[in-house]
Amino acid sequence: MRVTGTGHASMRIDTPAGSILCDPWVNPAYFASWFPFPDNSQLDWDTLGDVDYLYVSHLHRDHFDAAHLKRYVSKKATVLLPAFPTSEMEDELRELGFTHFLKAPNEEVVELDGGLKVMIQALTSPTDGPIGDSSLWVEYDGVRLLNQNDARPTDLSLFAELGHVHAHMLQFSGAIWYPMVYELPQAAKTAFGKQKRDRQFDRTWRYIDDLKADHVFPIAGPPCFLDDALWQFNDIHGDEGNIFPDQSVFLSEYAKVGGTNAVVLLPGSVAEVTTETCETSHPVPVEEFFANKVAHLEEMRERKRPIIEAEKASWRHPEIDVLKEMQRRIEPLLDESIYIAKGVGGPVRFDLVGYDGESVESIVVDFPGKQVRPYADEKVRYRFRTERALIEHLLHIGEVDWVNSLFLSCRFSAARIGQYNEFVYSFFKCLSEERLQYSEGWYDEHERAVDAEDITIGDWVVQRRCPHLKADLSRFGVVEGDQLTCQLHGWRFDLSSGRCLTSVGHKIRAHRVDEQAPAPAGESLT
Ligand code: FES
Question: Could you tell me which residue ranges the Rieske domain spans (predicted)?
Answer without folding.
Answer: 461-522
